[in-house]
From TrEMBL:
Pfam families: LytTR. This is LytTR family transcriptional regulator. Coiled coil: none annotated. Residues 1-102 form the HTH LytTR-type domain. InterPro entries: LytTR_DNA-bd_dom.
C-alpha cells in the first residue's frame, strides 16, 4: 500500500529518523525545524523504507546520517548528525553493526567510547 493515499512522503534521503509513539510515527527531516506526526505505525515505514535501520523498538534511522556508534559498558548507541543518541537493542546489535560496516568503507567510527 503506497504512502501517497494522504500526503506523499518526501525523498527518503531527506529523512534523518523516524520514532514510534503507539500507532503514530514522528518523522524528523534534514532541513525542517518541526517534525511531522503521521498516523501510521513504524512497521509500516520500515516496509516502505527498506534501507533504513530499525535499531530498537521505537526508532528507524537513515544510515546516511550515522556519525558514530558509541560503546558504553555492554551497550551500544548510535549517534546521528542531529546529535540524537539511540540505544541499539541487544537483539538488533549484530545486524545493525554488520549493515553499518558494509555501508562504510571506514570502520573507525564504529567503536568509539563515550
Amino acid at each position: 500500500m503506497p504512502i501517497s493515499r494522504s500526503k506523499p512522503l518526501p525523498r527518503p534521503e531527506l529523512i534523518i529518523r523516524l520514532e514510534a509513539d503507539g500507532c503514530y510515527t514522528t518523522i524528523y527531516y534534514k532541513n525542517q525545524a518541526r517534525p511531522a506526526l503521521i498516523s501510521r505505525t513504524l512497521l509500516y515505514f520500515q516496509r516502505e523504507l527498506p534501507h533504513f535501520l530499525r535499531v530498537n523498538r521505537s526508532a528507524l534511522i537513515n544510515p546516511a546520517y550515522v556519525v558514530t556508534v558509541v560503546r558504553e559498558d555492554k551497550k551500544r548507541y548510535v549517534r546521528l548528525t542531529d546529535e540524537t543518541l539511540f540505544l541499539i537493542a541487544r537483539r538488533r546489535a549484530e545486524e545493525t553493526m554488520a549493515t553499518l560496516k558494509t555501508l562504510s568503507h571506514s570502520d573507525s567510527y564504529l567503536t568509539q567510547a563515550v
